[in-house]
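Appendix B. Chain record.
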Amino acid sequence: MLKLVTLFCVIYTAYGLVLPASMLASYTDAFARNQMLALASAAYSSNPQHCLTTKFTNAQLKRQIYVKNCAALNSDVCSGYTAALHADKAIVISFRGTQGFFQLISEANKSVFESQMSWIAGGKVSKYFGDAFSKVWAAGMKDDVASLLAANPGYEVWVVGHSLGGSLASLAASYIIGTKIVDGSRVKLVTYGEPRTGNKDYAHAHDGQLAYSYRVTHNRDVVPHVPNEDFMGYYHNKYEVYYRENMKDGAKFTICDGDEDSKCSDGLWVTTSIDDHLHYFEKDISAWGDKGCN
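Structure tokens predicted for this chain:
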């Protein structure tokens, strides 16, 4: 049996296909709670190194990038950072949410979703998200990722983000695989409170690129449900990890195989909580990151 599994893996790799999630490392609460959440929160800090030092061993920030007027909202500032986690043998690409985007969501304003653009892996994505990612990427993140990969061959690439940052992380993971910067088998993507980023074709293309891709959703968090599923074809990619009620240590969660699955948060009638969006694993994501993840 082991020989058959090994042969199957070799065939998949040879043809550039992504192995099913069941054959690779699967989601664990500990990884999302203790490692990836800190990396997402650090993006909200003016110095992500504080979180990196607090939560990781031998972790070094490469650079934090800020881009003003990053998308349709001229007052918005988009930001992300890269780092190397040498003890974990991982390169980090992390993005934060923005106040301007959150304000629009709070006001049920769909303007950031009304214009779409074609995506390299297939399908269409929000032009607002696509432009924001492209500007941060071009502002130095592209060079930093290339430098980190050259200096640390064989490291995994962990991509993470919260809110708008979740959509930028989704695009970043898809982009580095689609442009053959990194093989999909080396990429781990975890997002928190990610809105719908693109249409169904994008979601399916994304599913085919990544085996380790998890959208963590907290109870009635409003943002994963915007825009509405019937608005301009927007559709989530898999896999959703749904925590109903609380996210305390030991909290139960459901992993749904479907892109849009009624067994997870898509089955709720009411999804209007801003507080659930701001808090994951009992942490105020932005405030915790700003305090150095202490």
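Further analysis of this model is presented in Appendix C.
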